[in-house]
Write a structure and sequence with these properties.
14 helices; DNA polymerase, domain 1; mainly alpha; single chain; three-stranded antiparallel beta sheet; 2 domains; hpI Integrase, Chain A; 4% strand
Length: 301
């Protein structure tokens, strides 16, 4: 079973161009399943049947995992066995009829513009050693809606100030160009001119590969986790105790565009979504906000 899993992960990396973060998620989810099979005395894919798969999903519920986690693991299992059948490593797909639980559809959290402008990080910039970098990161995430891995993967040459756009390498290594407004360009230019050279000077000789746009205090490329820490710190103390992540800014970007009159197809392209249905959640969010405003403001509500 372990060897079959290793082959599948190699396939996802080489042929599906999955990011290291996504690969780790697949490895963790399928590793949990393989561990369950091992405890049940099953060490070969041929020993897995539909009944065992249902027992596994039931076990996940008993252990208290959320519906979204169980649905994700069910999807990973289906992909795994589909791969084995397609590669003639297995005759029958035991997961073909596996139906996962319906995922909990939660509306993503969205910030108000005044929450971004009035964030604690914006009010106390002198506290942070990398304030210009942090400001540029926050504004660029909100200005473009890019994913955290996309931002961390940016190189200096990906930014075109003359055209006012940034080149992003998204999922499946697909490129897209996203326009930047003037405020984002100004903050980014300030960071590049005043602070980036200082951070770059902290790097040991030959330690930094490529020409990363955003640097850590040690001069290397700022990691996904580093970006997340920047955002959490920047919005620390936000009213209501909201925990803000880079994805919150991505949700906010999309929702504010739709509320401002942008069409769904444009937002889909900017976000890099393959399927329009993925983008449509933001229309549900806008409707939810309209309903909230209605009940707050209508005299009969």
């Amino acid at each position: 079973m372990q060897e079959a899993l290793a082959q599948y992960l190699r396939f996802l990396k080489a042929e599906r161009n999955m990011s290291p973060e996504t690969l780790r998620a697949y490895q963790n989810d399928l590793g949990d399943f393989v561990g369950f099979c091992s405890r049940a005395g099953i060490t070969q894919p041929e020993g897995v049947d539909h009944k065992l798969l249902r027992r596994y999903l039931s076990n996940q519920q008993t252990r208290g995992y959320s519906k979204s986690t169980i649905a994700r693991r069910s999807s990973a299992i289906r992909g795994f066995f589909r791969f084995l059948v397609q590669r003639d490593l297995l005759d029958v797909d035991p997961a073909a009829a596996l139906s996962p639980p319906h995922k909990e559809r939660r509306l993503p959290r969205v910030l108000r513009l005044e929450e971004i402008d009035g964030a604690e990080g914006m009010q106390n910039l002198h506290v942070y050693r990398t304030s210009l970098r942090d400001m540029a990161i926050v504004e660029l995430l909100y200005a473009t809606g890019m994913r955290v891995a996309e931002l961390a993967g940016l190189d200096s040459e990906d930014v075109d100030f003359e055209r006012g756009e940034v080149r992003v390498l998204g999922k499946g290594r697909k490129e897209r160009l996203i326009p930047m407004h003037e405020a984002a360009q100004q903050l980014l230019a300030n960071y590049i001119r005043k602070e980036r050279p200082i951070l770059q000077g902290n790097a040991a000789e030959g330690e930094t590969e490529g020409n990363p746009l955003f640097l850590s205090v040690k001069g290397g490329r700022l990691s996904d986790r580093g970006v997340r820490r920047v955002i959490e710190r920047f919005f620390r103390g936000l009213e209501g105790g909201k925990r803000i992540s880079p994805h919150t800014l991505r949700h906010t970007f999309a929702t504010h565009l739709l509320q401002g009159g942008a069409d769904l197809r444009t937002v889909q392209e900017l976000l890099g979504h393959v399927d329009l249905s993925t983008t449509q959640i933001y229309t549900h969010l806008s409707k939810g906000q309209l309903k909230e405003v209605f009940f707050q403001t209508h005299p009969r509500a």
